[in-house]
Each structure stands twice: as structure tokens, then as C-alpha cells.
């Protein structure tokens, strides 16, 4: 069904490959058998999802809870393997890489999670948390270099180098999400996958974090795969939006076009939820 969706041709990277190309992604989870001889029941979380992201552009994935958004994020980050289908970053199939190759490739794509409380280790200093992605890379291997890079990253998200020796509990929710973004930035990634990055934050703080993400996009040419149940959040940051419903993309387009003339009844339901929000 995805192959029938209109796609917009855009210039890609030099070799023509998209920054991110997701093709026919399927992920079924087998649940424990109910009886010894019964086949394991399947949760069909994703049923053939395809999309691409060109360098420097951003795609929003919207859909209600349980539609498969976080499953997409985990597969794109190679934190989970698909039942079938492929995830290619600049043409490289992530599932075909060796562990060592994947470790190096991780420099190019980083993740920001929803929960700024749960995703930062409370026992680590900000310096260690932010520098952690560097551990897997050969560069910046000394603690001193890592600390310098962490300080640069913190500056980019509007925090101070005096914050390096503090712990997560000393920060507000919005500041913690800035720390999570600083960690994602430290490898200078091409793609940041952000799964509900502002859902846990107050609305006024949401706008600040989204504006920061927008600034970073312009400054560093980052692409986002921004996942949200909230069309307004995606509209803030993304060039294109894909609407996910029951593990499939039912509609894809520019956010403005979707707001004006959503085709799929499910998109209209999402829109009415946005319009009812005060
Ligand atoms: P969303 O992020 O849009 O809320 P998810 O991708 O988390 O949706 O989940 C999609 C579907 O897959 C849901 O029905 C969820 O219960 C199921 N699911 C997700 N992860 C697992 C898992 N590890 N085992 C079994 N079912 C899962
Ligand atoms: Mg989710």
C-alpha cells in the first residue's frame, strides 16, 4: 500500500542514496504461547512501512499510541531487527553490518527518547552522560577530550560548562531534554531520531525545545526523524509527515497540505485532536 503513495523527488546525497531509506519494514512480535501446542500469537506492530529522508530534511511520524511509532524508531536505530524489510543509512543496510561496523556507523545517527527523567542515568555526571556516545568511537578517547567535546555540546543546547559536574536531578525537565540532545549531538550525527521528545514537557517548554531543535538543524544540517502523537509538534519542525495507523503509513505529505486537506479519515481524527487542544 505504501508503494502507491506519492513521493516527492528531491536531490539526495552525492551518490544519489537517501540519508535514510526504509523499505517494506515489517515487525511482528511473537507473544508467549497460550497452550503448549498452540502457535504463538503475533502482534503485528509494523506491516510494511516505507519512507525516505533526504540529507538535511526532516520527516515526522505521527500516529496514536500503539500504532507502531516506537517500533519504527528502534528499527531505524538498529536497536531491534525487523521481521523483514530493510533500513539503509546512506545506502548501507544496517542489518547487514557487523557489530564493529555498526558501532562506527552509530556516529551518524543518534537518538533522543521521550522521558528525560528515565533516559539519563541518575548516578552519572552530565559530563559522562553527554560524552557516552564517544566511548564507542576511536576519536576523543581521553577523558579530557571527551570533557571538552561535552562542553561544546552543552554550549550548543544553551547549557553551561559549569553544568558538566552536576547530576540529572539538578535540572528541570526541559533542561534534561537539552542534556539528552547534547548527548545526541556529540558525535555530530547526520540524523537524530527523536521519539516523543517533548511529550513529557509542559507546553511552554515544548516550544523552547522544538525551537532549539530547529536551530540545531539549521546550524549543523541535521535531519530529524521526529516521532510524535501530536501533529502540531511535527508541524513545527518537519518538511514532511507520514501518518501511521496500525503499523502502516496511511498518508504522507507536507504538514501544511495535511492540515488543509487530509485524505484519510484517521488523519482527520488526529487533526481534530490538535484543533481541540487549547
Ligand atoms: P507507539 O510507539 O506508536 O505507541 P509501539 O511501536 O510502541 O507503538 O507498539 C506498536 C505495537 O506493538 C503495540 O501493539 C505494542 O503493544 C506492540 N509491541 C511493541 N513492542 C513489543 C514487544 N517487545 N513485544 C510485544 N509487543 C510489542
Ligand atoms: Mg511510542
Protein model, in words:
By secondary structure, this protein is of the alpha/beta class. Helices cover 33% and strands 22% of the residues. The protein has nine helices and ten strands. It has helices spanning 69-76, 99-105, 126-131, 143-156, 173-185, 203-220, 231-237, 255-261, 265-276; strands at residues 20-30, 42-53, 59-62, 84-89, 92-93, 109-112, 191-195, 223-228, 240-245, 248-253. It is globular. Bound molecules: adenosine-5'-diphosphate and magnesium ion.
Tell me briefly what this model is.
The protein is α/β, with parallel strands linked by helices and 278 residues long. It has nine helices and ten strands. The chain has a six-stranded mixed sheet with strand order 6-7-8-3-9-10, sandwiched between helices. Strands 2-1-4-5 form a four-stranded antiparallel sheet, covered by helices on one side.
List the helices and strands and how they pair.
Elements: E1 20-30, E2 42-53, E3 59-62, H1 69-76, E4 84-89, E5 92-93, H2 99-105, E6 109-112, H3 126-131, H4 143-156, H5 173-185, E7 191-195, H6 203-220, E8 223-228, H7 231-237, E9 240-245, E10 248-253, H8 255-261, H9 265-276
Parallel strand pairs: 3-8, 3-9, 6-7, 7-8
Antiparallel strand pairs: 1-2, 1-4, 4-5, 9-10
Helix pairs in contact: 4-5, 5-6
Amino acid at each position: 500500500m505504501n508503494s502507491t503513495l506519492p513521493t516527492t523527488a528531491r536531490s539526495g546525497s552525492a551518490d544519489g542514496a537517501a540519508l535514510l531509506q526504509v523499505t517494506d519494514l515489517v515487525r511482528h512480535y511473537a507473544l508467549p504461547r497460550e497452550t503448549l501446542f498452540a502457535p504463538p500469537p503475533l502482534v503485528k506492530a509494523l506491516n510494511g512501512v516505507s519512507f525516505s529522508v533526504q540529507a538535511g530534511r526532516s520527516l515526522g511520524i505521527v500516529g496514536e499510541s500503539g500504532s507502531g511509532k516506537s517500533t519504527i524508531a528502534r528499527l531505524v536505530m538498529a536497536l531491534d531487527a525487523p521481521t523483514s524489510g530493510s533500513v539503509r543509512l546512506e545506502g548501507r543496510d544496517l542489518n547487514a553490518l557487523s557489530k564493529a561496523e555498526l558501532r562506527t556507523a552509530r556516529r551518524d545517527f543518534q537518538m533522543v527518547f521521550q522521558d528525560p527523567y528515565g533516559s539519563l542515568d541518575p548516578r552519572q555526571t552530565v559530563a559522562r552522560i553527554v560524552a557516552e556516545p564517544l566511548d564507542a568511537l576511536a576519536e576523543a578517547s581521553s577523558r579530557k577530550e571527551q570533557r571538552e567535546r561535552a562542553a561544546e555540546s552543552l554550549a550548543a543546547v544553551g547549557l553551561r560548562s559549569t553544568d558538566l559536574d552536576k547530576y540529572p536531578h539538578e535540572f528541570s525537565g526541559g533542561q534534561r531534554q537539552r542534556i539528552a540532545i547534547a548527548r545526541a549531538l556529540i558525535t555530530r550525527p547526520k540524523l537524530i531520531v527523536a521519539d516523543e521528545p517533548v511529550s513529557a514537557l509542559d507546553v511552554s517548554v515544548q516550544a523552547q525545545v522544538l525551537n532549539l531543535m530547529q536551530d540545531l538543524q539549521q546550524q549543523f544540517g541535521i535531519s530529524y526523524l521526529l516521532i510524535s502523537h501530536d501533529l502540531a509538534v511535527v508541524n513545527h519542525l518537519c518538511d514532511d509527515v507520514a501518518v501511521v495507523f496500525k503499523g502502516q503509513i496511511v498518508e504522507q505529505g507536507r504538514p501544511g497540505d495535511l492540515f488543509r486537506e487530509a485524505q484519510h479519515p484517521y488523519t482527520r481524527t488526529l487533526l481534530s485532536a490538535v484543533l481541540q487542544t487549547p
